[in-house]
Amino acid sequence: MAKLDLTPLSQIDGFVGAALVDSDSGMALAKLGGGGVDLDLAASGNAEVVKAKRRVAGSLKLNDGIEDILITLGKQYHLLRPLERNEKLFLYVVLDRVKSNLALSRHELKSFEQSLDFN
Q: What tens digit of pLDDT does each residue of 54-81 get?
């Protein structure tokens, strides 16, 4: 896989950091920013969150994919977005809750995903 440039994500209002994560290994394949968030540790932990949600969705026979997972903290939003074209990967974005617009951020993250070139 070619090195992926996460720089466009830094244009999202309230951007703190981002990573492209392999959900099987929990390894961050690309990282940008972080602002005090250990993106490697977060990637590993959030891979477990994605796997757990997939297991529960399967057990519930929801027959639907995860569009995104939102973790709301007092000062931050953490967005996890499994890629439509490669379900083993997900984007992880940390946003400053005060400076971000959650609906717009989700839209921008989806647009970024569609712009990714895996060739």
A: 999 889 988 888 899 999 999 999 999 9
